[in-house]
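Follow-up to my earlier ticket, as requested here are the two runs.
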Amino acid sequence: MSATPRNRALTASATALTVVASTFAFVAASAPSAQAASCSSTYLSYGSTGTCVKVLQKNLGGLDVDGVYGSGTRSRVRSFQDDANIGVDGKVGPQTWRKLATYGKALGWKAGITVYMCKANSTSFRFSVWNNSGDNANWNLYTAQSSWPIEGDALADDRIEAQGHVYADTYNSEKLVVWVGRYGSDNAQTTRSVRDFSRSTLPACG
């Protein structure tokens, strides 16, 4: 028995709603990565606002992610430019975006130490560290997947450098422990405000 006109209309409406919902979900899921990719050609400076400022703040680390390029963001950008050996003007253009892409996204920061991660290839992540503490430092990033931390030591002060690779699909960060000036339990500074990292959340290494 063939469907009545009313049933055919209801079926067509339901199909249309499913298509619209699926399309909306795809756009919503794709929008953040598309916006992030487009930021590399966006110029930012004091007073800028919006999504690309949030991308900058999230990738740079050590900042509130509020989408407002204020004095704190400008100061952090200037320090990053200086320690990354690029022109220091407190403004973000292609050169600063490219240098940020070299390191990836900030996972955690404490006492002037910022740990970055990016996707090196299909099987590994590359980690880098910015030592903006003004002194030599050691750091350990602990994760749920391993009893051994990702770590670095004896960093020269005021420098950003790539330090090594880890191999996995995803990690759940637990805490970052930092020692500045000297190594010892009484000098440990700890933060649990750290970001997990996976292939879906990290940019490819520049």
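Run two:
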Amino acid sequence: MSTLAYEIVDVFTDRPFAGNPLAVVFGAEALAAEQLQAIAREFNLSETIFILPATEGAASYRARIFTPGRELPFAGHPSVGGAVTVVRRGLREPGQVVQECGAGLLPIEVTADGRAMLTGGTPTVGLELDPAVLLGIVGLGPEDYAGPPPRVAGCGLEFPYLSVRPDAVARAAVDPTAAALAGVPKVSVFAWDAAQRTVHARVFCPGVGVPEDPATGSAALGLGVWAVASGLLPAEGRSSYVVHQGLELHRPSLLECTVTATGGAAVGATVAGHVVSIGRGEITVPPFVG
């Protein structure tokens, strides 16, 4: 085996050259983690997903997900893009597929027209954080802060969430040195429109080799968990919200989300969007350096 098949897809968009680009690689089950990491560095996209044979009976396939800097247990846009690509290539039928990954077994509903809905892992939410630290990391001041207070939240991959004024989102600029000193590898900065239940978000991940991500499904999932904990979404039942991301990178993305709450706490969340294929080919297998 000297080459691997791959496909490049744009995720959370219904048109090419928007959304978040993703490399989906097949046939890499014999490769070591160092080789997978080398391939992800070569593509140099925010994430590369490797579709591998499942090791658990309930799973449709196993996914390993890498940024240019490290492996992740889970990520949203690779999970959505990988599932649609698996179905589009005829490896699975439309309907529910189950992805095995570091966050467990995650169900993904895939339609024949290239749309998928991912159910996130177990919701988690932390204590309130000092907004001044996060504001400093993204180059904003106290006057830009909107509240409610920031918290770390997630559904398989956690982010700190910083709510700011609408005009501040475009001005945010991450300082990687400040982020490293504060021990904050990634942060979601956003403005929440309560009346429309829409969000204008930017997600910075300097600690994992992604200065800014055009569309972040895992962060969109956790945002609903944060919103329930912060009282912005109902404490009971299922609520929907929409995340707009990638505008500042000229890659507009649309993430359609739901969160289900019981007793004031999120118990589940979903994120959905379309996936557009833009190219495919083969990539050389890197040499193993042990």
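The only thing I checked on run two: DSSP finds five helices and 17 strands in the chain. Let me know what else you need.
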